[in-house]
Design goal:
mainly beta, 3-stranded antiparallel sheet, about 10% helix, about 30% strand
Length: about 100
């Protein structure tokens, strides 16, 4: 991106008069909105990471909780309140909140 102080906006496009570089102003806003999902310790999480549950979590409809220290492999990050989609041995597919896990 051009760092010139003379850039101007033409509808939804920013343009630099010095180098003729132009880029979309809307595209920059979308990149800023994508938040980084972090674990309980503040480490950023990515798809495919392994995490460890840090406390016992009650599971609706199950007779036993997910115990703290349970390792969850190959997570997938999703939008929403429960921002981790995963499969836990003995429980199946479920959603977890990133605040209750730490990176393995």
């Amino acid at each position: 991106m051009c760092q010139s102080i003379y850039t101007y906006e033409d509808r939804l496009v920013l343009t630099c008069p010095e180098c003729a570089h132009s880029w979309s102003a809307v595209q920059d806003d979308d990149e800023e909105k994508s938040a980084v999902i972090k674990d309980a310790n503040g480490n950023p999480l990515q798809d495919g990471d392994d995490v460890i549950v840090i406390k016992d979590l009650k599971v609706k409809g199950a007779s036993k909780p997910v115990k703290g220290g349970t390792k969850v492999r190959n997570i997938r990050l999703v939008e929403g309140d429960h921002d981790i989609s995963c499969k836990i041995d003995g429980f199946g597919a479920m959603g977890l909140k990133s605040q209750f896990v730490r990176k393995a």
